[in-house]
Amino acid sequence: MLPSKTPLTSPFAAPLIAAVKAARSVDPLLYPTVGGSLPDYVFTKILDLPAFVIPYANADEANHAPNENLEVVRFIDGIKTGAAVLAELGKLSKSEAKD
């Protein structure tokens, strides 16, 4: 897959950060880039849309390993964060979302 990156200067970054703060009562740890294989380039390169990843899993979740796991509290936090993300993005005006 092609590499993909959406800058933290995107108009969507601040609402996403606010959503994580609202849902989890902590400041998110921001990584401008991370290793991994997601087909985000379809959004960022082909459709010219921003793409962000907000992980919900616990640190020891062993993604895609035989012992992959997810703590129930992380699942519930993920639901709360997803709802907060939708609420924050819904506050953006059309002009803000196009910048």
3D structure, described in words:
The protein has 99 residues and is mostly helical. The protein has a single domain, classed as DNA polymerase, domain 1 (Orthogonal Bundle). 42% of the residues lie in helices and 0% in strands. It contains 4 helices and no strands. The chain has helices at residues 13-24, 41-46, 72-90, 94-98. Helix 1 (13-24) crosses helix 3.
Question: Can you give keywords for this protein?
Answer:
99 residues; mainly alpha; DNA polymerase, domain 1; 4 helices; 0% strand; globular
Summarize this entry quickly.
This protein is mainly α and 99 residues long.
What secondary-structure arrangement, pairings included, does this model have?
Elements: H1 13-24, H2 41-46, H3 72-90, H4 94-98
